[in-house]
Amino acid sequence: MSTKIEYADLTLNPGIYGCSPVSAGCTHCYAAKMAHRQVAMGNYPVGITTPSRQWTGKVVIDCAKIEPAFDKLPKKGKRILLCSMTDLFQDGVPFEVIERIWLCMARHPQHLFYILTKRIVQMEKFVISMRAMNRQVDLPNVYFGVTIEHANYLWRLMRLNELPVTHKWLSFEPLLGSLGLLPNELRNLDFVAIGGETGPDARPMKPEWAEEILASCEPYKMSPRLFFKHQGEWAPGSDGEMKHVGKAKAGRLLGGRTLDELPPLPLT
């Protein structure tokens, strides 16, 4: 499916419905609101969202939709955010289902698949399980990523750095607080995306929080590649205080420049 997510060409949601909040970045989940609309239209299973458009925690899996979703992908290579409407590594998704998705990604080597989770421990368990069975988990076209929205969740980065895979990336979105300088933690990453929160209830992101990440990445030149999505809904006013101005006016400049670096598509 086409997407407005700036660093991806497409999103792909192969038959996994529902999720549950695990940390501060989940509070205003856009996917829950979108899923609620899809439930009302009869496209998603009943019971995965509440009347207030929040996740119930129920997970529904339609395995018959996994392979067909991949079969509909274009032949030309694209950057694809996998499971943009859920978390592939939540407890309700069996490893057998994830392995089927892995086999599909292996059969489409021309595409780059971003995997993004807040559940790094479950991702670790899957990688260990696949390696124990001598099955290929470290695919050259798969980027293993975690979301970090606040310093309280930097432990996810530490665990990601220990993961025995080739391609790793981070999403600092929505960035909700200062992480400080990270002089060594980002050196082994391929890609970093940064963004403020959007939507009617968006919380502000101070530019200096994103600038700290930029300063932490710059010593490593081409790695990681940096993509600044947007400032979110808030921007500093003339008095230096954060003001709600809307996403378009807040803009995409970080440190006076646009950062649009993307990971390269796989060589096939």
Structure overview:
It is a single chain. Helices cover 25% and strands 18% of the residues. The protein is of the alpha/beta class and 268 residues long. Helix 5 (154-162) links the parallel strand 6 and strand 7 (168-172). The chain starts with 9 loop residues before the first strand and ends in a 10-residue tail after the last strand. The model has no long low-confidence stretch (mean pLDDT 95).
Major sheet attributes:
7 strands, parallel
What proportion of the residues form beta strands (DSSP E)? 15-25%
Tally of contiguous helical segments: 7
H and E order? EEHEHEHEHEHEEHEEEHEE
Number of strands: 13
What are the main properties of this structure?
7-stranded parallel beta sheet, alpha/beta, 7 helices, globular, pyruvate-formate lyase- activating enzyme, two-stranded antiparallel sheet, 268 residues, single chain, 13 strands
Short structural description:
The protein has seven helices and 13 strands.
